[in-house]
Model the fold of this input.
Amino acid sequence: MSDAIMGHSRRMTPTTLTHASGLWSRVLTGPDTWGTLRVGYARHWAQYRVAVYPPGIDDGQRVRLRAWRAAPVWGFLLWLAVWTAFAAIGVGYAVSIPASIVITALVIARSAAAASTTRRFVRQMTVWTGEGEEPTSSIERDRLLRMVDLLRRTDADLRAGRISPVEHETVWAGCYAELAG
Done:
């Protein structure tokens, strides 16, 4: 039986708080320090999109970039929550819908402003592969996936202490520069 059913409560200790904040930090900053890989599908095609953040950004900048990229999802959820809150206190549709749209737009604009200085320097590359593709598409996709693999292995090596932060950032900067050319 669970502790709650038995009448016991769990005490929050510094260890559980640290673990919880570490997990929350990982969710906010993302699994990769260097950027993102997104793979999408459309009929007989696959899209590979890599975004490499500028080397040396801190966790706060990474969180702001991830928040901006996820704005369509959390923006809708925020609008729904604000609209529901207005409806719960009895505000009519004529006011609650426009007001929730304005509030959501202001929060999204604030998120965009917070990420704007770093967002300008993010480098991206998108490759489509699929039916009837050009031969260079597969070559570009493989190059992109090799870069992602290198960056992920470098992240793992840094976390395991096999390389220094300087070595990690050197590899990251090389991949960042490769996307510029």
The radius of gyration is 22 Å. Helices lie at 3-6, 14-29, 59-69, 71-88, 93-119, 135-160, 165-180. Residues 1-20 have pLDDT under 50 and may be disordered. Strands lie at 35-42, 45-52, 123-130.
